[in-house]
Amino acid sequence: MAEKLKDKIYEYLSNHYYLNLATVSPQGRPMAHTMAYVSEDAVVYVATNKNTRKVQNIMQNPYVAYTVDEDDPDWFEMKALQIEGKASIVTNENELREVGEIMAAKFPVAADTPPDPESIMIKIKPEVIYYLDYSVKFGYREQVNL
C-alpha cells in the first residue's frame, strides 16, 4: 500500500508546477512563498535569489512545509499534497547540473534564461507527506513517513 501511495505522490509532484513554501523567520513569524519547482521522486528543488527572505529563514531554521494543490472550486474534488521536510542549499556541481536539466525540461523558459550568479538551488527532502483526495471522501488523507 505504501508503495502505491508513494507512486501517486511522485506522479502528482511531476504533474504540477508550483508549490506554496512555508518558512519561519528568525523572529518566529511564518511566511509563505509561491515557487516553481521540479521533483525527483519526493525530493523537490526550487531556484531563488540567494538574498531572499526565504533563504535567510532556511539558513536559520531548515525545517519547512509546503503544499501542492489544485485550484478547483469543488471542495469534493480537491486533491493536494501537504509536505513537511528539511531544506538545504545545493552545492554539488553534478547535482546542480542534473537539476538544471530537469528544470529546463519542465520549464523551457529556464533553458533560455542566462545564468544568474545571485541564484541558488534549494533542495527539500520530505519527512512526512499527506496525500489529500476528497473525491474519495470529504477530509480523506493518507500519510507516508520517509
UniProtKB/TrEMBL annotation:
Signal peptide: none
SUPFAM superfamilies xref list: FMN-binding split barrel
Domain named Pyridoxamine 5'-phosphate oxidase N-terminal: residues: 5-132
Pfam family, one: PNPOx_N
Keyword Flavoprotein: no
GO molecular function annotations of the record: coenzyme F420 binding; oxidoreductase activity, acting on the CH-CH group of donors
Keywords: Oxidoreductase
GO terms under cellular component: cytosol
Listed name of the protein: Putative heme iron utilization protein
Species per Swiss-Prot/TrEMBL record: Methanosarcina vacuolata Z-761
